[in-house]
Amino acid sequence: MTAYENSSTTLRGMTAPPLWVCVLLGLVMVFAGLFVLGDVTLFTVVSTIFIGWTAIFAGGFEIVHAFWTKGWGGFVWQLLLGALYLAFGIILLTQPVTSALILTYVLGLLLLISGIVRMLVGIGHWQQSGWIMVASGVFGVLAGLIILTGFPATGLWVLGLLLGIDLLSHGIGWLTYAWAPAARAAP
């Protein structure tokens, strides 16, 4: 049995969203992406603040969860993890520009390292179309080097640029899905 049973049904019996929902979601995301790309520096700071609040809520929940599940073991570790989340979130909120720089630097390092690893894996599996993994790794290494060699200036715009591109591509993806022949078929 395939994942698609008919044109109006998607994965495992869930119905596809109506055409107008896909188009609306796509348009909202495209406009949001363009809005973010209009001032990537501002949205880099906004992203950092959002991550800070998320870390604070996660840390608070982790601490409360430690007390709820005190008998499960690992109480001290959960408290420590919650405290670290809280401290990380507070630092992001009180120093958003400096934090954006740090997050961007870490992102550059992660892209560089993951690119190198993907290249090595691709070379090791060359016979099984490993060249695709090597190409992906090259792009990761290049992106990491661009971020790291342009640092600290890149720290002020990279996160906002990536957010804008992600929103834009996500919106285009929804619009493409909405106008795909399978999505237009009547139920």
UniProtKB/TrEMBL annotation:
<feature type="transmembrane region" description="Helical">
    <location>
        <begin position="19"/>
        <end position="37"/>
    </location>
</feature>
<protein>
    <recommendedName>
        <fullName>HdeD family acid-resistance protein</fullName>
    </recommendedName>
</protein>
<feature type="transmembrane region" description="Helical">
    <location>
        <begin position="157"/>
        <end position="180"/>
    </location>
</feature>
<keyword id="KW-0812">Transmembrane</keyword>
<feature type="transmembrane region" description="Helical">
    <location>
        <begin position="130"/>
        <end position="151"/>
    </location>
</feature>
<dbReference type="InterPro" id="IPR052712">
    <property type="entry name" value="Acid_resist_chaperone_HdeD"/>
</dbReference>
<keyword id="KW-1133">Transmembrane helix</keyword>
<dbReference type="Pfam" id="PF03729">
    <property type="entry name" value="DUF308"/>
</dbReference>
<feature type="transmembrane region" description="Helical">
    <location>
        <begin position="100"/>
        <end position="121"/>
    </location>
</feature>
<feature type="transmembrane region" description="Helical">
    <location>
        <begin position="43"/>
        <end position="68"/>
    </location>
</feature>
<dbReference type="InterPro" id="IPR005325">
    <property type="entry name" value="DUF308_memb"/>
</dbReference>
<feature type="transmembrane region" description="Helical">
    <location>
        <begin position="75"/>
        <end position="94"/>
    </location>
</feature>
<dbReference type="GO" id="GO:0005886">
    <property type="term" value="C:plasma membrane"/>
</dbReference>
<keyword id="KW-0472">Membrane</keyword>
